[in-house]
Write a sequence for this structure.
């Protein structure tokens, strides 16, 4: 299939399927809106899975479609253009799946990949803890193998979608005597069991998409460990190296749409005649081009670190240092354009698009590695500066 | 011009600071949000009234302290720092001195209103521009509005006000469905008094913003001193130190501007209008930087509602955009300096 034929196929499928029960999902989900229409978005995941739209780049032998990156990009472009809902299954497809492809045993792949590909199995990521945020290696949740089972005790935090996930991949300390990175293991833990409790965290947006997850003697199968015991840090970090910027294409289409909505609002209320606002809109447009060109320059090229054992590349770190502050400034511009009306909320603390853009983006420079941590990584790995 | 506060200003500031520090707990700040215990907020206002500070701009013969903007700014900075809910700028800086204006001492709405305001029993909302949103208009029993002939005082119940939910839940904003043509009590027809009232509202809001900024900085410094990552307090890392130092510098630059604007205004200097614009622009910008920095340095905890930072952050965002946004004040300043005739919207302000 040529790229153009593929694009048409994606576009047609989305047009045919974002109808009926799924029509209402257009524009829902994504960061800041993960709490929306969760049941319906799970049904949408199954629809995607049935039709073979999950695991496009995964090897055919593992159940994927083995498509070239150009067609993966096309899929993300068309998906974003159609306003299709934020993926509820992205943690499984984009984080756990690639990890299993790289480090999993044949049995683990056979057990877990089909559910991810079918869109029936939801995952969440159990990394951060109250005492282990930027310093992830300070993880204290413990896992001990006793009586043929892993027993987990501890607390995770900022866990997106934990309240709907079936499974959690957990970074836990399996060797209490080992220091920091050593002694950590990567475990696959079922969420629906008596030893797991999920409590929602209310964010300043008034909504809850993050959770606290408490493990009180939660259990996992003895073979539910990815990599060897004590190898969890390498496994967790290995996935970071596979980011090729393909999934950022959809993100940038979303940014483009947000930019256009801010521009339209500024035109509609005349604030665009304010030279300061006009200059900031122009800056936002320039920034968007920087994001796009940088992504295109790296898209399809091999990341600087690929595969097990290689030090992860810095493309994703640099990309985040570009987009997170850009997105934050766009949010500030959006509420400035809206003016006094931006101080109002709707019933039940319902927020406008501009307000969500502003409030959600306060977290952009924090989650997934804060800007400070990203700068450290770029300085140390790319520039070779000494570690502090 | 001296930047040191005189004895009267220091006395007012210190009296308020001690009281507010003791009385305004996070519980009181949250009580200003919908469904909160309003009594808790009202009790603190009455204590401020008993301390006499609400009449800072009211002449002594009318029961006030008879002071000027030089004392107003340090007082409002303390109110801002405390997080006390309610229309502080509108009640203390705008309404109280208007209610004590000449010819308003007889019986009638304004005569009884002044006593209530000075005692901390009555909060007053004010909308001196041309907007239809009245902060605290669903909370304060009295409202000052700009009318064709000057400023008028209304009982809230007599106005077509529709309560609105707000991002900063303590704003108690209402939408004015139609602006009354007359009615109420005429407070002043004098354009100079109207302009003074506007500038006092701007100054007071600027002071609230620097106070809020200092509070958020203090909260953040406290947090980064005790939060440990990589085996050390995160405040020991240069990235955090530099960010907080930049935030501090922004506030430290804004504060003298606000004080200077107050001095020019109190002295009746012709350049006061420009300095008031500069003060609000700098205080709003500083507050926005401090807010962003405070959330960033807290990390994810600062993004939750369980933690108190969001209460101050949302207040700062709201105050930054009212009484003239920084863009509006910069445009007004640019115009006054002969730089540009562009960019002046008539959405805000009384002189535009």
């Amino acid at each position: 299939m040529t790229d153009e034929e593929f694009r048409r196929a994606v576009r047609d499928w989305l047009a045919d399927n974002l109808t009926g029960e799924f029509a209402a999902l257009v524009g829902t989900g994504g960061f800041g809106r993960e709490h929306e229409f969760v049941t319906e978005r799970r049904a949408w995941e199954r629809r995607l899975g049935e039709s073979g739209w999950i695991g496009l780049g995964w090897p055919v032998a593992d159940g994927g479609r083995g498509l070239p990156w150009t067609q993966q990009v096309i899929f993300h472009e068309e998906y974003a253009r159609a306003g299709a809902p934020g993926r509820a299954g992205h943690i499984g497809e984009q984080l756990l799946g690639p990890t299993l492809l790289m480090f999993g045993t044949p049995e683990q792949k056979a057990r877990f990949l089909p559910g991810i590909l079918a869109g029936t199995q939801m995952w969440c990521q159990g990394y951060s803890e109250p005492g282990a945020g930027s310093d992830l290696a300070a993880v204290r949740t413990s896992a001990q193998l006793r009586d043929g089972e892993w027993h987990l005790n501890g607390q995770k935090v900022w866990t997106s979608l934990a309240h709907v996930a079936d499974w959690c991949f957990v970074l836990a300390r399996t060797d209490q005597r080992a220091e920091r990175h050593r002694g950590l293991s990567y475990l696959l833990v079922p969420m629906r069991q008596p030893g797991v409790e999920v409590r929602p965290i209310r964010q300043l947006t008034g909504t809850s998409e993050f959770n606290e997850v408490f493990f009180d003697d939660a259990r996992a199968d003895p073979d539910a460990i990815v990599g060897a015991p004590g190898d969890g840090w390498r496994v967790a970090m290995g996935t970071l190296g596979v980011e090729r910027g393909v999934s950022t294409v959809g993100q940038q289409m979303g940014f483009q749409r947000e930019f256009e909505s801010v521009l339209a609002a500024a035109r509609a209320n005349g604030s665009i005649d304010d030279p300061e606002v006009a200059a900031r809109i122009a800056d936002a447009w320039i920034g968007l081009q920087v994001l796009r060109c940088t992504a295109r320059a790296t898209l399809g090229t091999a990341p600087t670190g690929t595969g097990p054992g290689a030090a992860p590349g810095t493309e994703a770190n640099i990309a985040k240092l570009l987009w997170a502050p850009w997105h934050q400034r766009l949010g500030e511009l959006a509420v400035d354009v809206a003016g006094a009306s931006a101080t109002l909320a709707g019933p039940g603390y319902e927020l406008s698009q501009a307000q969500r853009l502003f409030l959600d983006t306060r977290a952009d420079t924090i989650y997934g590695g804060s800007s400070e941590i990203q700068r450290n990584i770029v300085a140390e790995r790319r520039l070779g500066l000494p570690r502090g | 011009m001296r930047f040191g506060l005189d004895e009267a200003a220091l006395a007012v500031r210190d009296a308020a600071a001690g009281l507010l520090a003791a009385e305004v707990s996070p519980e009181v700040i949250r009580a200003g949000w919908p469904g909160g215990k309003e009594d808790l907020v009202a009790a603190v206002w009455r204590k401020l009234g008993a301390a006499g500070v609400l009449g800072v701009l009211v002449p002594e013969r009318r029961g006030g302290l008879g002071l000027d903007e030089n004392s107003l700014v340090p007082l409002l900075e303390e109110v801002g720092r405390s997080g006390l809910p309610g229309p502080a700028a509108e009640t203390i800086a705008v309404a109280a001195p208007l209610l004590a204006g000449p010819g308003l001492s007889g019986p009638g709405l304004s005569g009884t209103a002044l006593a209530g305001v000075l005692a901390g029993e009555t909060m007053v909302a004010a909308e001196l521009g041309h907007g239809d949103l009245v902060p605290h208009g669903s909370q304060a029993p009295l409202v000052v509005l700009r009318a064709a002939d000057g400023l008028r005082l209304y009982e809230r119940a007599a106005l077509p006000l529709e309560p609105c939910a707000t991002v900063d839940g303590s704003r108690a904003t209402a939408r004015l469905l139609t602006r009354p043509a007359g009615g109420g009590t005429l407070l002043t027809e004098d354009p100079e008094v109207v302009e003074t009232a506007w500038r006092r509202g701007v100054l007071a809001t600027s002071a609230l913003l620097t106070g809020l900024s200092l509070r958020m900085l203090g909260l953040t410094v406290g947090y980064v001193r005790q939060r440990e990552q990589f085996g050390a307090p995160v405040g020991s890392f240069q990235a955090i130190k530099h960010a907080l130092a930049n935030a501090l510098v922004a506030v430290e630059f804004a504060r003298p501007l606000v004080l200077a604007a107050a001095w020019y205004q109190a002295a009746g200097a012709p350049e006061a209008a420009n300095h008031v614009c500069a003060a609000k622009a700098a205080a709003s910008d500083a507050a926005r930087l401090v807010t962003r920095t405070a959330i960033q340095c807290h990390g994810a905890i600062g993004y939750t509602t369980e933690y108190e930072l969001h209460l101050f952050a949302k207040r700062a965002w709201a105050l930054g955009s009212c009484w003239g946004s920084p863009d509006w004040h910069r445009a007004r300043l640019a115009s006054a300096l002969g730089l540009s005739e562009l960019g002046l919207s008539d959405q805000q302000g009384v002189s535009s």
